[in-house]
Amino acid sequence: MKDRIHKIIISNKIAYIFSLIVSFCIWVKLSTSGSESITKTITNIPITVNLSDSAKEAGLKVFGLDEISAEITVTGNRIVLGQLTKNNISVFAQQSAGIINTTGNYTLELLARKSGQPMDYEITNQVSPRFINVFVDRFQSKNFDITPNISCSTDANHFVSVADLSEPNVIISGPESVVSSINRVVVEKDIKEKLVQTTNLNDLSLTLYDENNRKISSTNLSFSVNKLDATVTVLSKKTVNLEAVFLNKPKNLNLKGKRLALDQNKIEIAASDDVINSITSIPLETLDFAEISLHNKEFNLPLKLPSGVRNLSNIYSVLLKFNTDGMQSKSVKVNNIEFINKSNSQIVNSYTKIINVEVVGPAWELRNIKSEDLYAQVDLSSKENFKGVTELPAVVKFYGDTSCWAFGRYNVTVQID
């Protein structure tokens, strides 16, 4: 047992002595290498160009420095250089302050000097690059609309709409002479395959053009938006009929045949599948028969397109002609005035006793129309809390089914208590 303990003690002493020797060797190596002179290259050093006070007052600014950096070689103690970074070196164009006094391109020579601590090292060569080219101009920032210029095609059953952009405009900043030369900002893309469904495009770049349609370099320019997305909507196409819609149309009046004519009967539309499948025709703006007479029988009526429908024919109104052949008109005295939507508490007295109404219709039927065949209807729903004398519109109607109608607008004066 004693022999075993003795061997362990001797073994530990040997390990201890060995570790002391190794530590001493490492210390000697570090001591000798720490004083050894080495060379190191410092890279990505920012470049400073100082402008004179007069140049600054003139609004001049140096462009192009963000895209370049300098490097330089230094010599010194290994430990010192191990602490050295690009922040300890200042690279500048010392002579620029005196020569830059107007806009233009300048070639400047670069110099380097120590900045801050440590200082016990040497700059051993010239700055690389030795010379730089910069552009001096006034700063300008301007807002531009972005125009999509996406080239694509589809088949005969579909329609490709103008692309929708994720950003409608962009703010471009930089040299005044460059920014002011920008005429338009475009997103360009050429899609070779035929599109049959809505397509999303991502990370599209901006292209700048001058007024002569020449591309402008984006060098020295900054953008509020560098990349954007676009959606190219593909819709289904369909040809549909146009339909005239009437108010107060006589029940017995037949509008088929040559009685009614539109200068355009069909248009081509485009919409999503669910919308276009539900459309069988496109209505025109409602035409009140009270506007139609023997002398007033042509009407320019706008189309009423449903939401989400594109008008591919670019026809937005239609001329409607009403054929009054075989019709006549005559004046009929209407003395029967009826009130609707009258509350129980209201007492209504009409000051207007007779309305002279122009009635239009087929001659054979018109000759039999008498005063007792018509009445004027006045709606009091808008006068629920009104008290006093007022004038209200009256709609002239017929008691029975007929092919005749009342032309014109009529009012009656009433007292409501």
Topology:
Layout: H1 2-34, E1 37-45, E2 47-48, H2 53-57, E3 60-63, E4 70-77, H3 78-83, E5 89-92, H4 96-99, E6 104-109, E7 111-114, E8 121-123, E9 131-153, E10 158-160, E11 164-165, E12 169-175, H5 176-179, E13 184-194, E14 199-209, E15 215-216, E16 222-223, E17 227-232, E18 234-243, E19 246-247, E20 260-262, E21 266-271, H6 273-276, E22 281-283, E23 287-288, E24 298-302, E25 310-311, E26 317-322, E27 327-334, E28 337-340, E29 348-350, E30 355-362, H7 363-366, E31 374-379, E32 388-398, E33 405-407, E34 410-416
Parallel strand pairs: 2-5, 9-13, 18-22, 19-23, 28-31
Antiparallel strand pairs: 1-4, 3-9, 4-8, 5-7, 6-9, 9-12, 10-18, 11-17, 12-16, 13-14, 14-15, 14-17, 18-21, 20-26, 21-25, 24-26, 27-30, 29-34, 30-33, 31-32, 32-34
Structure description:
There is one protein chain. With 417 residues, this protein is mostly beta strands. It has five domains: 1-34; 37-129, RNA Polymerase Alpha Subunit, Chain A, domain 2; 139-232, YbbR-like domain (RNA Polymerase Alpha Subunit, Chain A, domain 2, Beta Complex), CATH 2.170.120; 236-322, YbbR-like domain (RNA Polymerase Alpha Subunit, Chain A, domain 2, Beta Complex), CATH 2.170.120; 327-416, Beta Complex (RNA Polymerase Alpha Subunit, Chain A, domain 2), CATH 2.170.120. The protein has seven helices and 34 strands. Strands 3, 6, 9, 11, 12, 13, 14, 15, 16 and 17 form a ten-stranded mixed beta sheet that branches. Strands 10, 18, 21, 22 and 25 form a five-stranded mixed beta sheet that branches. A five-stranded mixed beta sheet has the order 28-31-32-34-29, with no helix packed on it. The chain is elongated, with a radius of gyration of 45 Å. Mean pLDDT is 88; it is low at 30-34.
